[in-house]
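Severity: low
Component: inverse-folding endpoint
Summary: output formatting inconsistent between runs
Steps to reproduce: submit the following structure tokens with default settings.
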């Protein structure tokens, strides 16, 4: 009887191990073998009220930056933006009224990211605040928690789709890029949050 219990317990353990999420080197987790997902937790933070700083993001881990987060804080103007490096890379965003800023579209899990998605832009703001005009402009996602952003970028001249998970503090002085992911197959749809 004990031998049968040991065999059943062993079978259960093997089943649990084979069903668990695959974890590979350098903070990569994956459910879909075609998705390259990395936890990066890079933070850009300042105590200053006036600054312009950049945090570069290398989605495909090839030692070349694909995007940068730009924090620009001035007395009457504040913004946190994602900048495409080089030109030709894009983020999903929406055009807003007022200052006509492109604000990053906050995606929900499983939103499809592909060539048919609308409003691809090369410079989009996570947050934008301006007091030197009337009325005051306060747009974006500062203090709104984690933001899933859809991206498309070139690898060897072929377009790939992916997402970035970013958090911007309410005062716009701390930005954390938490995770990045992309489909290794060119021109293939990925779902926001897919790993």
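Observed output (run 2 of 3):
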């Amino acid at each position: 009887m004990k031998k049968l219990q040991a065999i059943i317990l062993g079978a259960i353990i093997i089943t649990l191990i084979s069903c668990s999420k695959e974890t590979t080197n350098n903070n990569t987790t994956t459910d879909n073998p075609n998705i390259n997902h990395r936890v990066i937790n890079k933070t850009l933070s300042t105590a200053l009220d006036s600054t312009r700083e950049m945090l570069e993001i290398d989605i495909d881990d090839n030692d070349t930056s694909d995007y940068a987060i730009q924090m620009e804080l001035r007395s009457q103007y504040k913004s946190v933006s994602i900048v495409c490096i080089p030109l030709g890379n894009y983020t999903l965003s929406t055009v807003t009224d007022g200052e006509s800023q492109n604000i990053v579209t906050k995606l929900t899990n499983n939103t499809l990211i592909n060539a048919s998605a609308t409003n691809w832009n090369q410079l989009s703001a996570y947050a934008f605040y301006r007091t030197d005009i009337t009325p005051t402009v306060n747009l974006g996602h500062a203090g709104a928690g984690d933001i899933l952003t859809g991206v498309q970028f070139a690898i060897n001249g072929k377009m790939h789709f992916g997402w970035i998970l970013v958090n911007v503090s309410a005062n716009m002085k701390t930005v954390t890029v938490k995770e990045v992911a992309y489909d290794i197959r060119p021109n293939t749809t990925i779902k926001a949050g897919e790993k």
